[in-house]
Amino acid sequence: MKLYLRLLQYLRPYWVRLIAAAVCSGLVAAFTGAYAWLVRPALDEIFINRNPTWLILLPVALMVVSSAT
User: Fold this and answer.
1) Counted domains in the chain
2) Contact at 8 Å (CB) between 41 and 65?
3) For residues 34 and 42, what is the distance between their CA atoms, to the nearest angstrom?
C-alpha cells in the first residue's frame, strides 16, 4: 500500500493530463463502437433490401465518424 501512495505522489502534478487521457480513451472507444453500429444496419439495407440510397449514405457517415476521432 505504501508503494501505491508513493506512486500517487509522483502522479499528483499530472492529474489533469491523466483525466484528459481517460476521457480521450473513452471517446475513441465510443467512436469505434459507432463504426459497428453504423455499418451493420447499412449493410443490411444495401445487400438484403437492395436500397441504393444507403450505398451513398454509408461512406458519408463513416467519413463523419472518422473525422470526429
Assistant:
1) 1
2) no
3) 12
Is a pLDDT exceeding 80 seen at residue 63? Answer: yes
> Could you report the per-residue pLDDT of 43-52, keeping only the tens digit for each?
888 888 888 8
The model's pTM is: 0.56
Which residue range forms the structural domain that includes residue 28? Answer: 22-69
CB-based contacts of 62, cutoff 8 Å, min separation 6:
35, 38, 39
Alpha-carbon distances of 33 from 36, 41, 46, rounded to whole Å:
5, 13, 20
Q: What are the contacts of 25-30 at 24+ separation with CB within 8 A?
A: 27/69, 28/69
18-29 as b/e, with b when 16 or more CB fall inside 10 Å? Answer: eeeeeeeeeeee
Residue 31 is assigned to a structural domain of this protein: yes
Length of the chain: 69
